[in-house]
Amino acid sequence: MDTVSFVTDLISRAHRSRASDIHIDPQAQAVEIRMRIDGVLHRCATLSNERHAELIAHLKIRASLRTDEHFAAQDGRFTFTASAVPPIDIRLSCMPTYYGENAVLRLFPLETEYQTLASLGMRREHVRSVTEVLANSSGLVLVVGPTGSGKTTTLYTLMELVRTASNSRTILTSIEDPVERPLSGIRQIPAGSHTGISFEQGLRAILRQDPDVIMVGELRDTETARLAIQAALTGHLVLSTLHALDIPTSIPRLTALGIDLHLLGSTLRILIAERLVRTPCDSCGIPRAFGNHPENQFPLAGIQISGDGCASCNMTGYQGRTGVFDIATNDHPSDGVPTAFERPSLLFREAFRKVVEGSTTCEEARRIEYA
Ligand SMILES: [Zn+2]
Description:
Layout: H1 3-16, E1 19-26, E2 30-37, E3 40-48, H2 52-62, E4 74-82, E5 85-97, E6 100-109, H3 117-120, H4 124-134, E7 139-144, H5 151-166, E8 172-176, E9 187-190, H6 199-207, E10 213-216, H7 222-233, E11 237-242, H8 247-256, H9 261-267, E12 268-280, E13 286-290, E14 302-306, E15 318-329, H10 347-357, H11 362-369
Parallel strand pairs: 7-11, 7-12, 8-9, 8-10, 10-11
Antiparallel strand pairs: 1-2, 1-6, 2-3, 4-5, 5-6, 12-15, 13-14
The protein binds zinc ion.
Zinc ion is lined by residues 281, 283-284, 307, 309-310, 312-313, 317.
């Protein structure tokens, strides 16, 4: 198979398997190709080392990267189109390694259907709390979690809900690094080294454009966090994400960013902590008893759905993922840190609830407990 067909086949296969990333790593003997599916890496092919240079050169050309540069990190993007799959935005990152350049392709399907909070895995009471908060015209909404916990998808879903509810009567703007998916009806401003616009500069510029609702990809530096709080204080609804483990660690994280805690009580409306867990395979998952095992950390015994693996789940026993949410709302805005945010994390309890419902397994829930 020639390189062009190989790449087309690889990306199409990755898309069909719902992979988020393709990793191409040169090793001593051969080039190893793996895909990340539902957060877990799977080996999918090996290629002889003779074909490595051509493969990397082909990917670089598609992403408009320098093919004569082999000793520097480079990143770019291209849109992949092929029959039988929707267009996919591909972010390519190449890095020099000991055995030669590697490549990581991140896939962003452009025809992703909009999710609802319920389809993300949020339970009814939580959906109601979030919807009530989004009806406010000002304040700060934060989605928190570590990398790969589904924060961005949730943020997009929140923004889409606000857009639908506002019925074109509000100006919605976002600053993102990168813009992961085009959203209709929203001014999306790309930040980052490619564009020369930092989050802080972008946010300042947005505030001069008379926005109502502002989505900030992430509160990752002091100035951006302060501007976001300021905007939330002055009549804007601000939606963003924060890299924190859970609800109790969010306030210390904001303190570390240099936020005046005094202002949080009147601006921060809700903290939505999130994790992703894998869901059991429909084809091989069967009810099984759990509990009463020395290694089992669960307080209860019960029935869970779990699978041993079959052809349709790549022998993993899992297919797809769902979100586990812990949500705290600040119902009585006042000065100081809202007491609602000073409580233990309920993520594990929420995950356990999903085990009982049959939408994940003890094994997956345990990963949250020990995260
Ligand atoms: Zn299966």
